[in-house]
Amino acid sequence: MQTGLLSTLELNQEITFPIRICDLTPNTHVGITIYDMSREHSRGPLASTVIDVFDSKQRMRQGTFNLFLWPDRKLDMSLECTTPGLFNVWPPKWEPHFEEGDDEAI
What we know:
The protein is mainly beta. It contains no helices and three strands.
């Protein structure tokens, strides 16, 4: 454990959304914001991250993912996202994640 922040956290819970997969667009993203309920909400989020639902070949992502959490940052769902969850290299260097064989991001 690091100073006030967990270095790892495992969430093993199914999340269900009230929408059909066929109704999603290829650029659909899911944003996650984590708040510390023991501190004032006005202090902002503890961390946030974004993951795209489909890869660059428009296949739905499946499986388990280790997402990078951006400490003390508000969720950014813009096309130039500053809180991405997946990277090709570690530590992250602001490069989007690409699947092997992908030519470009969505």
